[in-house]
Amino acid sequence: MDDVIKKVISKRKTVNSILIRKGFIDVGDKKTYEKLRLEHKKRGKI
Fold first, then answer.
1. What are the phi and psi torsion angles at 36 (to 5°)?
2. pTM over 0.90
3. Phi and psi for 29 in degrees, rounded to 5?
4. What's phi and psi for 28, nearest 5 deg?
5. pLDDT digit string (tens) for 1-45?
6. Interatomic CA distance for residues 21 and 37, integer angstroms
């Protein structure tokens, strides 16, 4: 991801960010996505 940000900056484009202190889950692959989807389904609407 670092390479993507550097490339955007080199093209003088705007890069934004958000600071998250807790509650963030990185869904980097299908296995993790499915696991989280099933957990969310069990909990129901919040």
1. -70, -35
2. no
3. -150, 170
4. -95, -10
5. 689 999 999 999 999 998 988 888 888 899 999 999 999 899 886
6. 22
